[in-house]
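Format notes (please read before filing issues)

Several people have asked whether sequences and structure tokens are stored in separate files. They are not. Every record keeps both together, in the order shown below: the sequence lines, then the token lines. Line labels are part of the format and must not be stripped during preprocessing.
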Amino acid sequence: MLAECRYAMTDFPTIADYVGNTPLVRLQRLAGQTSNTLLVKLEGNNPAGSVKDRPALSMISAAELRGDIHPGDTLIEATSGNTGIALAMVAAIKGYRMILIMPDNSTAERKAAMTAYGAELILVGGMEEARDLALAMQAEGKGKVLDQFANADNPVAHYQSTGPEIWRQTAGRVTHFISSMGTTGTIMGTSRYLKEQNPAVQIIGLQPQDGSAIPGIRRWPQEYLPSIFDASRVDQVLDISQAEAEDCMRRLAREEGIFCGVSSGGAVAAMLRLSQQVENALMVAIICDRGDRYLSSGLFDQ
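Then the structure lines:
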């Protein structure tokens, strides 16, 4: 009887099985009068609430398969928020100690989510400092750095899931893919898959305008440019201002019922801009996370 019960338990999925396969929905009001179809992929529906669930699960699972890490080991990562939350969740699922190094200006919700999953936080002045400290701690034998900025298992997660999902959900009709760029894993992996299906698909990357601070995306100095980034996989890079991204984020909540973060607002703002330049297109933008991670910032009160 006990053996039968154990067998039956394996028929049920774990929370890790629900990473990916997120909804793709149509914008109804922001799109305005247009021949284009504007779609957004709701990555906040992942278990830990962001697109980063995909690479977090991919990086840890692949490292396990290679024998690089084992349950009980200490993992270290530099993060601006979403990757840290996702890694903390996967570490909790699989039994790892997780040390996260992040800028001290990250929102209280992000910090609280990481510690809720059992991660230990080290706060520093900025992402460059966080990345340097993570590598220094690894050199001192304090743990294993997954290094989302150089880890091929980051874009592979999107090549194996995000790209195929978009292709399937649009029945191969997608013409433009728009994504904000942080580690660049999302745009690298998704671009590779979509371009293999149809080289004419346009891949649009977003970076902050000079002087703009948008959580989760960066205009990296050359020496810190993620090594997984391949410029040939991006057809066009657009600059987005902090004000434009924040305004679109608020409009998504108030006019579409889509509650998301600032980088997602930037991606949709870029999509709306592009929509004015083309006709009969089917565009997909990534909604990276949920807006509840930004409530303490006061951005939704404006």
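For reference, the curators noted about this record: The longest strand covers residues 97-103. The beta strands are 24-26, 37-42, 74-78, 97-103, 120-124, 144-145, 176-180, 202-208, 236-240, 282-287.
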